[in-house]
Amino acid sequence: MTSDLKVTIQKKAEFSPQQKKLNRLIDKIEQQKISIVRWKNAQAEIQQHTRQKLFPVYAELHTVLFQQMQQLWNMLHSHEFSKAEIQQLDEKIASLDKILKHSKSLSAEQQTQVAKINTFYQQVVAQSNAKKSKKSQNVSLENQQTPQQDEFEIEQDFEQYAAEQQQAREQAKQQRLQQKREQAEQMAAQSLKTVYLKIAAMIHPDREQDETKKAQKTELFQQASHAYEQQDLFYLLKMQLQLEQNKGVTSKELTPEQVKFYQLALDAQSQQLESQISEILESFHLAKTVKAEHVHMSDVYKAIDADCAELKQQLKWEKERLKHMKKVSGVEMLLGHGAL
């Protein structure tokens, strides 16, 4: 269908830069339409492959991480550690709890324990924030602080600020991508409706008196309506061009205004198709982002295998850490080497 559209547009040996750009866009969308069909057909198979390869490793990894969290939690409340060591242990336990909070691999009893620890650290954070608020209101106490304390608090505030800014940038990036997708969808829908209404005005069968022509127009109208329901802008554009040329409404070469309209409409649909492909790729939940452009099916399977290999390596390391965490001396060793 798209090749026919391109042939209809290409009538002269020399094309304007706008027409050349339009033809390149047509080629791009033609490949995107082929790709999206291929990805949709393979989506279920790839998701099944992902579940078979990754889910068992994730389940075992989460079990090991839970054992680490429980071991450190029990040890924290049964042995003496320095203030600095307690802080490191709290940070580690809280980070493990954050990972496991939404895990679907844990038993009901384990989930209850995770929720209990999560509640504890939420209370700790709330108490810490309350103390900071009270401290900020006490001007005399602030004036008594040593320069070392000021520097430490400034450093903490800066780290928190940097983390918040990074999170804000990520959120802004996601919002821009979402806005771009929505704008593309709106533009594609608008272009689709515009072309469909033009076709309907030219071939609506109710306006035809001749029964033979009315039957022909009814069939064409049904084809146009089906294409509209399927959001097939290519088919509608081709039909519009053919109808206009049959009626002598337009010359064989597209006018600059037509080229501009088709370029905007097709660019919007190209973005829409790219978003659909990206959504399919995102459904695979790969650790490493795979770009939709020029990606092959084998790339996804390779990415899944690479993720699986990395997870297995991480699982091996976490099991080794767990061995050390079963003894106080092992935890102290991990703390001393910054390998907790």
Automatic annotation (TrEMBL):
<keyword id="KW-0143">Chaperone</keyword>
<protein>
    <recommendedName>
        <fullName>J domain-containing protein</fullName>
    </recommendedName>
</protein>
<feature type="compositionally biased region" description="Low complexity">
    <location>
        <begin position="165"/>
        <end position="177"/>
    </location>
</feature>
<feature type="region of interest" description="Disordered">
    <location>
        <begin position="165"/>
        <end position="184"/>
    </location>
</feature>
<dbReference type="InterPro" id="IPR036869">
    <property type="entry name" value="J_dom_sf"/>
</dbReference>
